[in-house]
Structures are given as C-alpha cells and as structure tokens.
Design goal:
With about 180 residues, this protein is α+β, with helices and mostly antiparallel strands. The protein is about 30% helix and about 25% strand.
Length: about 180
Amino acid sequence: MYGKTRGYSLLNLLTSLAVSAILLGIGLPSMASFITTNRISTHVTQFAGALAFARTEAITRNQSVIICKSKDQLKCSTESAWHEGWMIFVDDNQNHQYDDHELVLLRDGLPHANLWIDYKGFESHAYVVFRPIGATTSNGSFTLCDTTATGSARALIINRSGRIRASTSKADGTPLVCG
C-alpha cells in the first residue's frame, strides 16, 4: 500500500555541498579578476573619452582647450591628484589656468573607488593643453591603476600630434608599475 519514500539522504546532501564548495572555490577568484579587469578597462575608456573630448573641442572651437586635475572642479590644482577629479575648459587667454570668464566644458569629480591616476608630461604634471589643430604642447603619459589589484596598470599615451593610445607596457617593453 505504501510506496518507497523518495528524497535525498544526508550523504547525497553532503556530497552536493562539497562539490559546490569546490566549484565556488575555483570560480570566485577568476570572477574577482574579471571584475577588476572590467573596472580598470571602464576607467581607462572613460578617461580616454575625456581626453578625446578635449581634443575634439579644441579643433571644433579653434581654441586651446585644457584638461587639468581639480579636486573641487572649480579651479585647476597642482596639489590634488588626477583620480580626485578633473575639469576641461576653453583657455581663452592661454595662461593654462581656469579663469572665471572661461567656459567649462566638462567636470568630473565623481569618486573613483580604488582608482589611481598619475600623469607624466614634459610641460606639466597638472594639465594637458590641446591646441586648435588638435595637437598637444608636449608628449605625456597617464598611468591608471586599480589599487586593489597588482598588474592592473594601463597607460594612455598622448603624443604631440594629440593622438591617444592605450598600452599595458612602458616604451621599453617592461610592464607598467603603479605607485
């Protein structure tokens, strides 16, 4: 009259949990690496977009346009860090500083968690000038890193013609280093 009861035994449950734990142990580290790679790629793309925007605006407006680091997005600052924010403006008087009468084209002051940006340029470490022909006043290189992951460094290299390219290594072929 009564059939056999169907279900999972304790042994089946423990075996399933053990297999699940092993699979999660293998999968989670690679997922974290995937998330870190995507996060730094997003930051590089956004910052490259800001640089390209500044260059395009310089050409379109036939005026010098500057992207500078700015913690408060109200003035350029040599003391702040690039990851704290930046602003892009039309430099009417070509003094390489934002003045109240000059047009601000873009401000970025959003907190970028775990992002570190450094700029090395021949003219200044605080700003990049795009001239009306789209060229810059000097060569330079931005290094972007995720501070939580080693080996995450990416570079945005700007040559004098204003061309922006991404790289994962230094000019001599050695890997980029954060810090």
